[in-house]
């Protein structure tokens, strides 16, 4: 108690002495708050900012007005362009109000900075640099004239088709992996491209003869120039030479899943080009040769296991050791393997390896929607798209699921997640939705509710069209009319965008562009479903796996 009294007396003594001697306590000059359009942010990030925002910065002491005008700046992030500002002062000059002199660009990132050259009226320097991030809101005006939904569907299919037609590899005709991949073409993406050619012929974007000529080029290259591995194709190959291009160090041989996508496309084309003339007859023969050459059952480690394996390498053998297990994008691989004329797998392989004897079942509900199969919240949307470019899920069942219910539930869960927007990303909602594997700002990722960073992939919502026709059409209108100046390009919609970070891809990927064309067509006419499911070996193979459907 005596020590406390002594300390109190000492403080009082020096305090009084300071007052008596006229000593001034040094001023501390710091910012207290920033408001943008009357909104505060603890993290100094402001989204959906008005085109002409009002920025209020409050400090601990009155400002020197002249220093404010040279120390407070707004710059456009991408270009470092300085934005002219107007300045106002209120609250006895403790608050400065800053506004741009003209409207800011929509969907653009800006940086507000206040440097320590800012002084108070007592000439005290600001104690630290202040930085805030501003992202302007979407300009909600239409970027293109309104047309009917039917014409918009035509336009999206036709423009997206240019990726496979105009940008197809000049030597092989196969689909390049992406718009920057040079000679690297993709086997699976080429399967999607082949199905897109069928749509283009049927929609009269190209003539039947033009489509036939391109398919002859593709199939002749696949048969006569491409290096295969037990009949299966690599993920990537050189579109000029046919040599395997390693996807990774040990993935330098057969990729059975990508091969199944290619075969899905080839069988669909075979069923479409059913004319009796010499050219169409020859095309069908070449496709049958390619189809029959794949040693599907050999990928059970040459019959040693009841697992079907994804990869085999001529130099690393089975080292990747990846059984193809569900639920994911590879159901088509089992359908193709069971449908083979020469080397079909047994149903036990499907049950043991793919279905894991029922372990792929889910049965939980998300957003009030029961999900029969797969991971929590469904996973990326390509799970319900790639296999079902050809497989018709309408009234399709087996021991594990009703596949129309599965794919519809998956799509609606993804839609409802984006609509709920639990992470508060810009652009998400009933119009802006769709999470799947795609490019992102710093790489590539399989986006889904459990792996979400604000990246929307147009292919996700648009390729869900058969399952969510209303919601997918809303997304298409939003992408085209509202974001068209940012994401609508020569080959359709760019691969992805993120409105929270204001990033727009400049890339197009075969595996993302293809499903847009195909699944829109399946919703409109069921063309690809009808063709693929008409193949006699597909009917037999799916029945052997235990599938039931009016289409079998």
Automatic annotation (TrEMBL):
InterPro entries: Cu-Rt/internalin_Ig-like (IPR014755), Glycoamylase-like_cons_dom (IPR019282), SbsA_Ig (IPR032812). Residues 323-535 form the Glycoamylase-like domain. The keyword Ion transport does not apply. Keywords: Signal. Residues 47-127 form the SbsA Ig-like domain. Gene3D superfamilies: 1.50.10.140, 2.60.40.1220. The keyword Signal applies. This is Beta-glucosidase.
């Amino acid at each position: 108690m005596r020590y406390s009294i002594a300390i109190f007396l000492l403080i009082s003594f020096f305090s009084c002495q300071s007052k008596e001697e006229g000593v001034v306590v040094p001023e501390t000059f710091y910012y207290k708050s920033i408001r943008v359009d009357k909104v505060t942010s603890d993290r100094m990030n402001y989204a959906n900012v008005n085109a002409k925002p009002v920025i209020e910065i409050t400090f601990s002491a009155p400002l020197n007005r002249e220093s404010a005008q040279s120390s407070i700046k707004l710059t456009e992030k991408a270009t470092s362009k300085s934005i002219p500002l107007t300045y106002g002062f209120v609250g006895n000059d403790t608050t400065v109000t800053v506004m741009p002199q003209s409207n800011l660009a929509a969907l653009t990132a800006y940086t507000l900075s206040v440097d320590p050259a800012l002084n108070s009226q007592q000439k005290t320097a600001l104690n630290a640099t202040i930085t805030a991030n501003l992202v302007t809101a979407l300009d909600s005006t239409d970027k293109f004239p309104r047309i009917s939904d039917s014409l918009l569907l035509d336009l999206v299919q036709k423009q997206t088709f240019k990726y496979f037609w105009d940008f197809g590899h000049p030597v092989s005709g196969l689909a390049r992996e992406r718009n920057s991949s040079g000679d690297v073409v993709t086997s699976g993406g080429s399967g999607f491209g082949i199905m897109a050619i069928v749509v283009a012929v049927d929609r009269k974007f190209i003539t039947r003869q033009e489509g036939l000529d391109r398919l002859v080029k593709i199939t002749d290259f696949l048969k006569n120039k491409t290096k295969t591995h037990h009949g299966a194709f690599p993920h990537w190959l050189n579109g000029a030479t046919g040599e395997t291009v390693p996807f990774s160090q040990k993935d330098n041989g057969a990729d059975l899943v990508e091969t199944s996508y290619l075969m899905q496309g080839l069988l669909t084309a075979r069923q479409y080009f059913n004319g009796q003339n010499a050219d169409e007859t020859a095309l069908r023969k070449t496709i049958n040769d390619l189809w029959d050459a794949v040693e599907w059952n050999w990928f059970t480690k040459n019959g040693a296991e009841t697992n079907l394996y994804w990869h085999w390498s001529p130099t690393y053998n089975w080292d990747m050791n990846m059984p193809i297990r569900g639920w994911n994008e590879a159901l088509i691989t089992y359908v193709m393997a069971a449908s083979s004329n020469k080397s079909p797998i047994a149903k036990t392989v499907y049950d043991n390896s793919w279905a894991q004897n029922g372990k792929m079942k889910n049965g939980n509900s998300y957003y009030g929607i029961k999900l029969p199969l797969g991971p929590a919240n469904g996973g990326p949307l390509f799970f319900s798209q790639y296999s079902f470019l050809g497989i018709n899920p309408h009234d399709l069942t087996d021991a594990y699921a009703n596949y129309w219910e599965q794919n519809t539930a998956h799509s609606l869960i993804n839609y409802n997640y984006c609509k709920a927007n639990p992470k508060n990303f810009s652009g998400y909602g009933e119009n802006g939705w769709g999470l799947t594997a795609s490019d992102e700002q710093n790489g590539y990722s399989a986006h889904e509710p459990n792996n979400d960073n604000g990246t929307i992939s147009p292919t996700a919502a648009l390729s869900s069209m058969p399952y969510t026709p209303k919601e997918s059409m809303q997304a298409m209108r939003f992408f085209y009319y509202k974001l068209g100046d940012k994401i609508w390009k020569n080959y359709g919609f760019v691969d992805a965008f993120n409105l929270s970070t204001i990033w727009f891809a400049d890339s197009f990927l075969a595996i993302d562009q293809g499903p847009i064309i195909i699944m829109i067509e399946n919703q409109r006419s069921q063309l690809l479903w009808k063709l693929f499911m008409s193949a006699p070996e597909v009917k037999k193979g799916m029945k052997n796996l235990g599938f039931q459907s009016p289409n079998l």
